[in-house]
């Protein structure tokens, strides 16, 4: 089993990019999150993007989540200010143990275990 770190809402368990209104969006973001700043979306990630659709089809889209392989990788993605803003919006860093993971230098896609032990 591999450990994965994910920023998610304490009640909904959704990540900070999920369910945001395009115009009232991402008030927590201090910097652009895109390939140009080293934060490519999963489809734009050359490692994750290749085979993402097949990975999702195999495991079921509702079981596939995105996160990070280490706290260092997570902190390379989110600034301290962004993590503080997210914490104010009831997001926290959740740890998962999973067998099925696809990792790049930026992020991971993984299968959420059926039985989850929440921190």
Secondary-structure map:
Layout: E1 2-9, H1 52-59, E2 64-67, H2 71-77, H3 80-88, E3 91-98, E4 101-103, E5 108-111
Antiparallel strand pairs: 1-3, 2-5, 4-5
Protein described:
The protein has 119 residues and is of the alpha+beta class. Helix content is 20%, strand content 23%. The strands form 2 sheets. It has a 3-stranded antiparallel β-sheet. Strands 1-3 form a two-stranded antiparallel sheet. The longest helix has 9 residues, at 80-88. The two termini are 17 Å apart.
Neighbour order of strands in the largest sheet: 2-5-4
* Spatial gap, N to C terminus: 17 Å
Poorly predicted ranges: none
Query: Can you give the helix content as a percent range?
Result: 10-25%
Any idea what the shape is?
globular
Oligomer: single chain
The helix/strand order is EHEHHEEE
Query: Number of DSSP helices?
Result: 3
* Mean pLDDT over the residues: 85
Rg over alpha carbons: 14 Å
User: Total number of β-strand segments?
Assistant: 5
The major β-sheet equals: 3 strands, antiparallel
């Amino acid at each position: 089993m591999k450990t994965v770190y994910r920023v998610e809402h304490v009640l909904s368990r959704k990540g900070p990019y999920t369910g945001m209104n395009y115009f009232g969006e991402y008030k927590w973001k201090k910097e652009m999150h895109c390939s140009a700043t080293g934060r490519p979306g999963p489809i734009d990630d050359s490692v994750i993007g290749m085979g993402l659709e097949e990975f999702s089809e195999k495991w079921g889209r509702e079981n596939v989540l995105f996160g990070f392989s280490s706290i260092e990788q997570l902190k390379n993605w989110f600034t301290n200010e962004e993590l503080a803003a997210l914490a104010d919006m009831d997001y926290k860093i959740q740890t998962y143990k999973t067998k099925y993971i696809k990792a790049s230098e930026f992020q991971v896609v993984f299968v959420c275990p059926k039985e989850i032990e929440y921190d």
